[in-house]
């Protein structure tokens, strides 16, 4: 005795909707989609004045972890942010800090020479125009860039104006 039960149209629609909803939910049961792996951390050295050292050009490295390959721009952004709380606690000092953290406009390297353009640093770093201040500023910048492969020299500017940068430091631009 095989009896067919009458099926209403509404029951078919409800069953279909339930099936579609179940299929959609079951498709996501494999767990969350994998997140892309973060860029491996690389080390960059930035140079600050160590505690007890001559502040007029003596610098020493601190190592920081950064994402992705280390470039002149990444190294300089780390330097311009200044010492961290931990680095300051062990005696490192710098002309650079929160006021200069966003001062980098551009950093390119061609033919072994880094060309670096800053926002106008003159109001942010008034002591950098003294002989000791300019020595400290250039020591930190030059040492931070010199660690990078392919850089054998650097030229700095304020908003693209090299003469303005070196006049501010009371020195002639490099040849």
Question: What does this protein structure show overall?
Answer:
Helices cover 32% and strands 20% of the residues. The strands form two sheets. The chain has a three-stranded mixed sheet. A two-stranded antiparallel sheet has the order 1-2. The radius of gyration is 29 Å and the shape is globular. It has a domain of 103 residues. The protein has five helices and five strands; from the N terminus they run αββααββαβα. It has 175 residues and is an alpha+beta fold. A hairpin with a 2-residue loop joins strand 3 and strand 4. About 13% of the residues have low confidence. Helix 2 runs antiparallel to helix 4.
Q: Which spans have pLDDT < 50 for at least 5 consecutive residues?
A: 7-29
State the helical fraction: 25-40%
Ends apart, CA distance between termini: 105 Å
Q: Strand order across the biggest sheet?
A: 3-4-5
How do you describe this structure in short?
This protein is α+β, with helices and mostly antiparallel strands. Helix content is 32%, strand content 20%.
Keywords:
alpha+beta, three-stranded mixed beta sheet, 175 residues, single chain, two-stranded antiparallel sheet, 5 helices
What is the strand and helix layout of this fold?
Elements: H1 9-27, E1 41-48, E2 60-67, H2 72-80, H3 85-89, E3 104-110, E4 113-118, H4 131-146, E5 153-158, H5 162-168
Parallel strand pairs: 4-5
Antiparallel strand pairs: 1-2, 3-4
């Amino acid at each position: 005795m095989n009896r067919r039960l009458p099926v209403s149209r509404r029951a078919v629609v409800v069953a279909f909707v339930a099936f579609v909803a179940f299929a959609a939910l079951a498709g996501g049961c494999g767990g969350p989609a994998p997140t892309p792996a973060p860029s491996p951390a690389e080390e960059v050295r930035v140079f600050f004045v160590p505690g007890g050292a001559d502040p007029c050009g003596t610098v020493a490295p601190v190592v920081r972890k950064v994402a992705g390959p280390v470039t002149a721009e990444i190294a300089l952004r780390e330097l311009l942010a200044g010492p961290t709380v931990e680095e300051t606690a062990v005696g490192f000092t710098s002309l650079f800090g929160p006021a200069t953290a966003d001062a980098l406009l551009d950093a390119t390297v061609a033919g072994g020479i880094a060309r670096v353009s800053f926002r106008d640093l003159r109001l942010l770093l008034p002591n950098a125009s003294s002989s000791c201040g300019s020595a400290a500023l250039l020591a930190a910048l030059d040492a931070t860039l010199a660690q990078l492969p392919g850089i054998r020299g650097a030229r700095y500017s304020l908003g693209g104006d090299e003469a303005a940068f070196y006049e501010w430091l009371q020195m002639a631009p490099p040849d």
